[in-house]
Amino acid sequence: MEKPSVIRIWITNKNDKEITSQMSESMEEFLSIAIQNGCIGSTFAEDEERIIVYTRWSDEMVLERFRSSEEYKIKEGKIIQSFAAAGFKIPDDILFNSTAKILFSNSP
User: Fold this and answer.
1) How far does CA 50 lie from the centroid of its chain?
2) Which of 60, 56, 61 is nearest to 105 (CA)?
3) Pick the residue with more confidence: 49 or 4?
4) pLDDT at 1 over 50
5) In principle, which of 12, 15, 98, 105 could form an S-S bond with 51, CB 3.0–4.6 Å?
6) What pLDDT, in 10s, does the model give residues 28-54?
7) CA–CA separation, 74 vs 69, rounded Å?
8) Residue 62: which residues within 8 A CB-CB, separation 6 or more?
9) Cis peptide, bond prior to residue 4, ω within 30 of zero
10) At what angle do helices 60-67 and 70-85 cross, to 10 degrees?
11) DSSP string, 28-82
């Protein structure tokens, strides 16, 4: 039986703050590095109240290997710095952060 793919979701309250260019750049860098480390898809989005980041992985072992890497820690630090510089309170503004097993999906 094939291992199920997983998603990693991170949702942050905006609390009337705007996404800065520094935040976008650090997130895009992070997601680009994730692709180089086995991520098979990612999304960086916002609505009026939240910032949403979604990544998809072939299995949890690939995700965890990336999450334990030095590269991950460096890029994550840049994201946290850029959010803090924009006035976000991390981790207080984080609404939801989880890894979930995909049970069904219409996408490849």
Assistant:
1) 13
2) 56
3) 49
4) no
5) 12
6) 999 999 999 999 999 999 999 999 999
7) 9
8) 37, 38
9) no
10) 70
11) HHHHHHHHHTTEEEEEEEE-SSEEEEEEEES-HHHHHHHHTSHHHHHHHHHHHHH
